[in-house]
Amino acid sequence: MRILLVDDDQLIRFVHQMFIERAGHEVVGLAEEEVQAVGLALELKPDIIVMDIRLENGSNGISAMKTIQQTMDIPAIYISGNSDNKTIEEAEQTIMKAFLVKPVTQDEIAKALV
Amino acid sequence: MQFLKSNQFIWSSEQREYLCGVRAAALMRESDLFKRAAENKFKDVLWFQDRCLIVEKDQRWLVLKRNQETDLIEVELASSFAERKENYDLVECASDIEWIYVNQNSEVIYSFQNQTGHPIHQLSDALLRFSKQGLSLEQISEKLSDLEVYEGQEGGVKSFTYRGVVLEYEFHRLKLDHLDMKGEVIYFQLKNVQRPFEKFSADFYKVVLNSAAVDVAVFDLEQRYMLINEFAVKNKEVRNWLIGRTDFDYCEFKGTDDTMAKVRKEFFEQSKRERRMVEMEEKIIDAEGKPRYSLKRFKPIIVQDEVKYMMGFGMDVTPVIEAQEQLQKSLLEKEALLGEIHHRVKNNLTVVYSLLELQAIQEKNADIAFAYRESQSRIKAMALVHEMLYKSHSFEAIELFAYLKNLAEHLQHLLSVNKIVELKFLGEAVDLPISTAVTCGLFANEILTNAYKYAIPFVESPEIRIRLEEVNGFVEMEIADNGPGLKNDFEEGKNASLGFKLMRTFASQLKGDLEIKSEDGLRYLLKFKK
């Protein structure tokens, strides 16, 4: 599957990219904040977006997914340190395949991508 | 000297006995002296304005009498006081006179007080108290800074202030030099009482009311204004116009929304109904568009158990409210900052965790890979604390039961590759400070990773039981598996793994007792004081 990976931490992006690729998928784009994520999603049309929630410059991954999903039904796999009920409820308003709480193992990402 | 009514006083020069008051009266009635007097067996029984003065032969009695012409007190020996004199009055009859008897060494022997309930009693009490202490008049004078004993024979006027009331006394000093009755009598006569408040006129109260730096109003029971002070409404015409009108009339007059009047009415009625003071906070926007806050209070005026009027008070509390808002804002900023710190710490731990994950999945040697997993689990135990703190927005305590559940479930994913491990939780919520919770988490983590290493691979249906309870101020944490347990030849000192050593370290850090039992699996019980 073609994956767009969004996370504001470069090291996490690096590690998660490796997990995704080791699970046999392709990372077609990397983004660190909302506007960039929306632009790349519309341009690359990935199959799934692996999305962090707290992004660079105070931007928000759920908000990015809402914008993207106004145009395309690309599902999200959220990987976030924010796992409070309010955040999860908000995430559930978007098309979502999984909600993983950081830190994640390769196994968890691989299972979520199936 | 003997009196037969309430202010009785007996002074006997021979027996040196002093009695006064009701007790003296009772004694008198029962005494032979009285009986003899009543039977008129003695010559020297004198009557003064319904008072009886008895003078027994060969006994001397001190007599204090007021000269009705000069209004001065005179003293003389009763033995020489042989006939009735109409122009004298006994001191006892004068309700406004106090006196003390001082002997020739200036020692106060006794004081005598009137029974009018007048504040002058305070002075008299003081004199009596000091006299009992055996103080001389000079010493008493020093103690009562407002009271100076006039040195001249003629007497004088001195003032004494008691609870804001100014008492003016005229006092006199009389020398005694009759045989064994040497000394002097000093007596005080109240001449003037000044109560400052009595001097205030209605105008004075009006000035006070209008000078008060709070809104003051009086309402009738229909919440119509009866009185408003200048501080509440500065404009005199408006103030006068409002009398007899309500807040609703005022809103209509100004063409403004009557929400405020409705709220006030609600609190007014509550105060009236419940017969107690109620208060409310009112927010208004001033002419400059800035919010102002006023604390309003309604208080019923109850006369003869009936609410007659209602009082209203108002005070500008804007600076207080602004300070509270600033504090609240600072608190929120602090919480947000703390939240951010915990989030950052957790993120950093997440990065380390993920890097170890990368190494673990690339490692071919299973033992080394498991060592990576162990390190990951320790990091997770710490990261979980920061995650829970961030989520709860409370930075003081961690709920340990939820934390252990969370940790155990995570380790199930991290460490159990091919087997389903049944997790059983029993217990209750226990709040612990952060540092204690982290130590507990690390302790539990070592037991759980040991279970995944030494127990779960060797049983068909692996099971981990976690129990947490608070008993009499002690926390009991029990973690057990259903594995093969410790080997028979296991000696903790010799064979202990790093995990075992860490467990002991954490238990000691918590100042707890750790009990390890190997029967039907391995069971760890840690008890520590909360």
What's the gist of this structure?
With 114 residues, chain A is an alpha/beta fold. Chain A contains five helices and five strands, in the order E-H-E-H-E-H-E-H-E-H. Chain A has one domain (2-104): Rossmann fold.
CATH fold name of chain A: Rossmann fold
Helix content of chain B: 25-40%
When the domains of chain A are counted, the total is: 1
Spans of at least 5 consecutive residues with low confidence of chain A: none
DSSP helix fraction of chain A: 40-55%
Strand residues, percent of chain B: 25-35%
Quote the distance from N terminus to C terminus of chain B: 79 Å
Shape descriptor of chain A reads: globular
Task: Describe the protein in words.
- The complex is a heterodimer of chains A (114) and B (530).
- Chain A is α/β, with parallel strands linked by helices and 114 residues long.
- Chain A has 5 helices and 5 strands; from the N terminus they run βαβαβαβαβα.
- A 5-stranded parallel β-sheet of chain A has the order 2-1-3-4-5, with helices on both faces.
- In chain A, α1 (10-22) packs across α5 (106-113) and α2 (34-44) runs parallel beside α3 (61-69).
- The longest helix of chain A has 13 residues, at 10-22.
- The relative contact order of chain A is 0.20.
- The model of chain A has no long low-confidence stretch (mean pLDDT 92).
- Chain B is of the alpha+beta class.
- In chain B, α11 (400-415) packs parallel to α12 (434-454).
- Chain B contains 14 helices and 24 strands.
- The longest helix of chain B is centred in the middle third of the chain and has 45 residues, at 318-362.
- Chains A and B meet through α1 and α5 of A and α9 and α10 of B.
